């Protein structure tokens, strides 16, 4: 088998790295990618390894401790150890160390875009200014770094309108309500008023799956029209009790900010809403659960325009990417 190998930190995994792997794959039957990582780095090596696997499920990816001198020979020895006795035919890099690294392994070196003409970016540039170079990240890296905003609130309190408007303003993705789709799909059952906890758990997991599917296309921000915490509230609404597993799912949420919309205007019936009498009760449930779980949130009241101003000011604080 014609075996190829490449090595790097992939810190973070950007489009230049992806281009290197794609070009390398096209020239060998099997490609091995070695990810070097240090414990003190902000992004664990296991996450970087998984980013590559998401984009390239047909390559072998190994993570190794970056504890060697920055010299070709020790890294050639480490690479051969990871290959488990297999001899690489070709080594691919975009770096000056590539030629001697390949020679120490007895492999031929192929340089790919060393001048960075195809994708003029480096890991250092991204670590120093992630926001400016955002579009140079690969999709799984975008999903990892994107700030996540959850817009939550009771029925007819403007959540969907706000989520759509924010996504339009920031030219990014918004995640619709999985639970609404699920409810519409089951509404004609003879026992449609009967719910069980497993259904709400399924809704929470479905919401997360939709969010992850859209996050890879995010432009720095993912706007979520509800989240598993809101599913906890609806579980209480329909079953009259809390669900520990649901609250555990909600507690794991990695949202940078919650926007809680107040029900401070008239109820609008859209043909599906049915909790008008419980609006204020459920609103207080939201406040109680956000406080209990220690979530960062702001309460939005007043007109849509005023809410957009408040939300934009809060999001501006969230959208600060520190260098690393």
Can you describe what's shown?
- The protein is of the alpha/beta class and 324 residues long.
- The chain is 44% helix and 16% strand.
- It has 13 helices and ten strands.
- The strands form two sheets. A five-stranded parallel β-sheet has the order 3-2-1-4-5, sandwiched between helices. A five-stranded parallel β-sheet has the order 7-8-6-9-10, with helices on both faces.
- Strand 2, helix 2 and strand 3 form a beta-alpha-beta unit.
- Helix 9 runs parallel beside helix 11.
- The model has no long low-confidence stretch (mean pLDDT 95).
Radius of gyration: 24 Å
Instruction: Point out poorly predicted stretches.
Output: none
The total beta strand count reads 10
Shape annotation: elongated
First and last CA, distance: 40 Å
Task: Give the structure's gist in a few sentences.
The chain is α/β, with parallel strands linked by helices and 324 residues long. The chain is built from 13 helices and ten strands.
Strands, helices and their partners?
Elements: E1 3-8, H1 15-25, E2 30-37, H2 45-55, E3 60-65, H3 72-82, E4 90-93, H4 98-104, E5 108-111, H5 123-128, H6 139-145, E6 147-153, H7 159-170, E7 173-175, H8 178-186, H9 197-215, E8 221-225, H10 228-239, H11 244-251, E9 257-261, H12 279-292, E10 297-300, H13 304-318
Parallel strand pairs: 1-2, 1-4, 2-3, 4-5, 6-8, 6-9, 7-8, 9-10
Helix pairs in contact: 3-4, 7-13, 9-10, 9-11, 10-11, 10-12
Main features:
5-stranded parallel beta sheet; 324 residues; alpha/beta
């Amino acid at each position: 088998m014609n075996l190829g190998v490449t090595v790097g930190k992939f810190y973070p995994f950007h489009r230049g790295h992806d281009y290197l792997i794609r070009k390398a794959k096209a020239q060998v039957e099997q490609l091995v990618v070695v990810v070097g990582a240090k414990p003190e780095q902000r992004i664990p090596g296991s996450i970087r390894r998984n980013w590559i696997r998401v984009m390239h499920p047909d390559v072998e990816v190994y993570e190794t401790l970056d504890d060697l001198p920055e010299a070709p020979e020790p890294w050639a020895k480490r690479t051969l150890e990871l290959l488990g006795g297999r001899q690489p035919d070709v080594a691919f890099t975009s770096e000056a160390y590539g030629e001697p690294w390949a020679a120490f392994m007895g492999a031929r070196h192929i340089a790919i875009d060393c001048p960075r003409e195809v994708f003029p970016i480096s890991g250092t540039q991204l670590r120093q200014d992630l926001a400016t170079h955002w579009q140079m990240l690969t999709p799984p890296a975008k999903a990892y770094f994107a700030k996540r905003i959850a817009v939550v609130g009771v029925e007819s309190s403007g959540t969907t309108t706000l989520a759509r408007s924010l996504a339009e303003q920031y030219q990014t993705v918004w995640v619709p309500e999985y639970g609404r789709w699920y409810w519409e799909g089951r509404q004609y059952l003879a026992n449609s008023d009967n719910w069980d906890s497993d259904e709400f758990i399924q809704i929470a997991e479905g919401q997360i799956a939709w969010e992850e599917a859209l996050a890879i296309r995010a432009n720095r921000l993912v706007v979520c029209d509800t989240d598993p915490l809101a599913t906890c509230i609806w579980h209480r609404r329909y079953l009259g009790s809390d669900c520990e597993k649901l609250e555990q799912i909600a507690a794991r949420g990695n949202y940078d900010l919650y926007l809680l919309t107040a029900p401070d205007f008239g109820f609008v019936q859209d043909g599906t809403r049915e909790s008008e009498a419980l609006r204020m009760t459920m609103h207080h449930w939201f406040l109680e659960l956000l406080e209990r779980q220690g979530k960062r949130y702001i309460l939005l009241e007043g007109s849509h325009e005023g809410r957009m101003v408040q939300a934009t000011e809060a999001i501006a604080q969230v959208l600060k990417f520190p260098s690393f």
